[in-house]
Specification:
- By secondary structure, the chain is α/β, with parallel strands linked by helices.
- The protein has one domain: NAD(P)-binding Rossmann-like Domain (Rossmann fold).
- Helices cover about 45% and strands about 15% of the residues.
- The chain has seven helices and seven strands.
- The N and C termini lie far apart (about 45 Å).
- The chain binds NADP nicotinamide-adenine-dinucleotide phosphate.
- The site of NADP nicotinamide-adenine-dinucleotide phosphate has 28 residues, from helix 1 and helix 4.
């Protein structure tokens, strides 16, 4: 039987687009969301996939999730990590440390514990496995102001990904890092539509990166064609804006 790809954050805008595209490419999937929502259930039915809900910043919930998925899946062909939690738009020094900690826990801690839990399931595959980490274009070039906790957490996540890309290669696990431009989703929901429309108009093609743009690149990276790109921070941003 085909080994599945586990998508962390599959209930989100980009995660669900990745799930659809990987499923269309013939991958079997395991879907994850923080909460058990109608969107997650509907996606699982549509893609004929198992789904699980777990807040990966909670040690107990994460452990339970790792144990259940690990017991049911001895092998995994890949993991896509696209978790994120919304963040306030505030100057860095006016932001309480708890917000930084939440972002670090949702990004770095959640990825680290996920990889620790599932490395054995990935390395058991004789023909190798793949991990795709969703970073952001904000880690490339000068970052925007007022979202320091998110950018700091994504920078940590990206550096971590570059290190494990080297460390896991001997286990035949390739780590890819994708850095999307702005995509309309829950993460941009608190920005006024008028502002988003103005930013979009100023993009080179007058359009934002779409979740499907990101998903198609992830589908390439989840197969042999993408193997030479491991360890590289790959922008998917329809041209840099800065
Ligand atoms: N949107 C953008 O402009 C943009 C740009 C660059 C990079 N990215 C990155 O792309 C990825 C997907 O972003 P998106 O825009 O699709 O975000 P999204 O729609 O908000 O989805 C976020 C996903 O993360 C899950 N999640 C939130 N908190 C979690 C926690 N504590 N533990 C486990 N899972 C948790 C959510 O589950 P629930 O649905 O149950 O809450 C959801 O599945 C993220 O890594 C994001 O940083 C996004």
């Amino acid at each position: 039987m085909q080994d599945p790809v586990l998508i962390i954050g599959a209930s989100g805008t980009i995660g669900s687009a990745i799930a659809h595209t990987l499923s269309e490419s013939g991958n079997k999937l395991i879907l994850h969301g923080r909460r058990e929502t109608d969107a997650l259930r509907t996606l699982a039915v549509a893609l004929d996939a198992r789904y699980y809900a777990a807040d990966l910043t909670s040690d107990m919930a994460a452990q339970e999730f790792f144990e259940v998925v690990g017991q049911e899946n001895v092998h995994l062909s890949g993991i896509v990590f696209c978790a994120a939690r919304p963040f306030p738009h505030k100057l860095a020094l006016r932001t309480d440390w708890t917000v930084f900690q939440e972002q670090i826990d949702t990004q770095l801690k959640a990825l680290h514990t996920t990889l620790q839990a599932f490395k054995p399931a990935l390395e058991k595959r004789p023909d190798g496995a793949r991990i795709i980490i969703l970073s952001t274009e904000y880690v490339l070039g000068t970052p925007p102001q007022k979202i320091a906790p998110y950018i700091a957490a994504k920078a940590a996540l990206t550096a971590y990904g570059q290190v494990v890309a080297q460390e896991l290669l001997k286990a035949k696990i390739r780590v890819h890092i994708v850095a999307p431009g702005m995509v309309r989703s829950a993460l941009t929901a608190d920005m006024p539509d008028q502002y988003l429309d103005m930013v979009e108009t100023e993009m080179p093609e007058a359009k934002f990166t779409s979740a499907e743009d990101v998903a198609r690149v992830c589908a390439l990276l989840m197969c042999h064609d993408g193997d030479p790109l491991y360890g590289t921070v790959i922008p998917v941003s329809r041209a840099a804006r800065r």
